[in-house]
């Protein structure tokens, strides 16, 4: 299977901070010298990235807020494809996390939950749909293309304190496996990254950053371990303690999904 060393031009959505930013800079440093397009809603951070790391012209920036209506989002994706017709890889790293206590249902912020679901799952599903005609076309011409999703160890073992976030990441996990099977014959390669708790701004809004900083994986360590696996042919990349969860609960599921898909096709064609 082709890997990240085959990427010529990658867009990383949600790359102004955290995992997305760190991975964007590491991918920029690959010996294959890909073009990397950082993407996010904060223009000042995009400008800082390009001014600090874009001297050779391979680092570009696109402002995009995934929390917009479907038509606006599709128009933005279409514009990106027109501007970068050699785009052959997209990574989805934008995310938001809200705490919740369903034992006190009156405290549940449903509007916030809907935004959380949209940012972490629905917008990713829509953007994948909008990018796929372009990626499939490149793939069918003989050029491997890539979709990189970022789920979480919470997709395997949910955290009751962030129930909605866990559910959204479980949806990304399931979608990634299904797309991996559906798109393999189109030369579109789907790779899912399953991080553990990692150093991030994600928890700032909940006031849990100080407590979690005592136990999370440093961002530099996560980035190093992830890049080591991205250059392999792995379709699912589990990092740190998530690797144990993956082996315990998920090993063999991708193969089983492939077999189930083939069984379904055979039944339909009878």
Automatic annotation (TrEMBL):
Q: Which InterPro entries match?
A: NAD(P)-bd_dom_sf, SDR_fam
GO molecular function terms attached to this record: oxidoreductase activity
One protein family per Pfam? adh_short
Signal sequence bounds? none
Top-level taxon in the UniProt lineage: Eukaryota
Which keywords fit this entry according to its UniProt record?
Oxidoreductase
Say which family it is in.
Belongs to the short-chain dehydrogenases/reductases (SDR) family.
Q: Which PANTHER family match?
A: 5-KETO-D-GLUCONATE 5-REDUCTASE (PTHR43669), ALCOHOL DEHYDROGENASE, PUTATIVE (AFU_ORTHOLOGUE AFUA_3G03445)-RELATED (PTHR43669:SF3)
| Name listed for the protein in its UniProt record | NAD(P)-binding protein
Tell me what organism the protein belongs to.
Pisolithus tinctorius Marx 270
